[in-house]
Specification:
single chain, about 230 residues, six-stranded mixed β-sheet, 7 helices
């Protein structure tokens, strides 16, 4: 069911985490009903893109062995045999085996766009969508980004950051690359418990799987404008 009425959420400061105001989000992009069937199709499509597609089995010409006819065609009272490398012999080739190459499930553009809207609406309904004023960092230090995460209340959570600017946010990207998953060590005082990897991309590179895999989705106002313009439906 399409929802055209706007939905509202707080716009928070990325550095301090304090509310700066209320933003009206497009109901058609952020306020629709989640569609599990569309999300499933999009996840299958993106998972197929991630696959290496190198699975392969040897064909008849690739199996080691002689090419001579092993037995006479007639006179044995048994079935005719043309090669010992057939699939019904031990050591023969695999009939209808896998071959290298991409095997992408068919998905229409409008279906994939609907899955994007469904994923964004799911994050909004689960209260896991955070809109900030800007994702700009003054430097690329890990401690600076940790302070921002603590202010937003998502420290130690898997988070996906989307920025709307055309130029990449170098500081945020380099700081996020310094995060890695660490196990809890109660004997260590200087270790950030439960540290999780962070993902940073532009809003033009959004996909369904990272939105669902990460617990929180953090977007700036420019990314919201881009997503509404890109995925708005009439």
């Amino acid at each position: 069911k399409k929802m055209t009425q706007a939905v509202e959420c707080f716009v928070r400061s990325f550095a301090r985490g304090t509310p700066l105001g209320v933003a009206a989000l497009s109901g058609g992009v952020f306020g629709g009903a989640p569609r599990r069937d569309l999300l499933h199709r999009a996840v299958l499509y993106e998972t197929a893109w991630r696959a290496q597609a190198t699975a392969a089995a040897k064909q008849l010409a690739q199996v080691r062995g002689s090419t001579r006819k092993p037995f006479p065609q007639k006179g044995r009272g048994k079935a005719r045999v043309g090669t010992l490398r057939g699939p019904h012999f031990v050591g023969g080739y695999a009939a209808h085996g896998p071959t290298p190459g991409m095997r992408l499930p068919d998905i229409q553009t409008k279906v994939y766009d609907a899955a994007i809207r469904s994923a964004l609406s799911t994050k909004f309904m689960q209260n896991q969508l955070i809109v900030v004023d800007s994702l700009h960092l003054q430097d690329d230090r890990k401690s600076s980004l940790q302070q921002c995460l603590a202010a937003l209340g998502i420290q130690g959570k898997k988070s996906y950051f989307l920025y709307g600017s055309q130029e990449p946010l170098v500081g945020l990207t380099r700081a996020a690359d310094k995060f890695s998953t660490k196990s809890k060590d109660p004997d260590s005082d200087d270790l950030v418990f439960g540290e999780k990897k962070l993902l940073v991309t532009g809003a033009n590179l959004i996909s369904v799987l990272p939105v669902l895999e990460n617990e929180f989705l953090v977007v700036d106002k420019a990314a919201v404008e881009f997503l509404e313009e890109m995925y708005m439906v009439d």
